[in-house]
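WARN no homologs supplied; continuing
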Amino acid sequence: MVKPSRSSTPQPPNANPNNSFEVLPAPSESVSSLSFSPTTNHLVATTWDNQVRCWEVLNGSCVPKAAISHDAPVLCSAWTGDGTTVFSGGCDKQVKMWPLTSGVQPITVSVHDEPVKHVAYISQMNLLVSGSWDKTLRYWDCRQPRPVHIQQLPDKCHALAVDYPLMVVGSGNQNLIVFDLQFPQTEYKRMQSPMNYQTRCLATFPDKQGFLVGSIHGRVGIEHLDDSQKDKNFTFKCHRSGESGDHIHSVNSLNFHPVHRTFATTGSDGTFSFWDKENKQRVKGFSRCPAPIPCSAFNADGSLFAYAVCYDWSKGAAHHDPSNATSHIYLHSVQEHDAKPKYRKK
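OK structure emitted
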């Protein structure tokens, strides 16, 4: 019998094909959200093991700073504008406020009837907004036990993006609801998503003139708010695999680069890419990771891109094998040529 050559032995997939820096210790379960402080290189991760963890990135290393627990999987996080406080929400139907000060315990500042999918802090209003599967948005003054206002949604809150005064909510049945936060109790505009499948993620344009919408069907839509700019709206395919691109994967996160105004997408195909919407082209594509990328974030100056590689729960608990599951958080050093637009020649 002929022995197989060493070269024919199947090799395990490279867990870190982009040679990114790994944040340790690795979470014991899937990562649901990542968020950087707006003022420092502090990174917060929420995970399905009920944990919220914070690291400080210092000179090429990550130092664990603190952690808190929820009573159920945690799905989202947000920072105050001064970077001193973190909010986290999840399947225990609560939002906790966590001052990053030694010895200060987190307190519950928001309660919903169903899991909390998204949170954002609006510094200009000194209010927290939380979006839930109970089909409401709730605005909170964290000094008061009751919401300042409850906004009914047509369906569950699947996605939320806020950059004052613009807020966009992705709800069920492809509903996109736009708010002018100068008048937060009134819908500014309600529209149908340009995609035929569920909204997965949103991101507001840096100039606040529109937004990106990503769907579970491997597409991103570029939407302008002004009807006179409708000719600039378009959608494009991404996060597809197979020889003919017939394997379609969810677009899981959208993030604008804070300097170059290009944007990043991550997908369930295990890839992430940087795109230029003005020139309708991809700036940089990165190597495929061995598991989905459910979430990502740029730091304040755009020099770091954090992304998680783990099971994304898109196929439910039946496809989740805890004994085999691995979760990783990586930091990728962003070079100028990775994210700066490459303008087309005329």
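The longest helix spans residues 336-339.
OK
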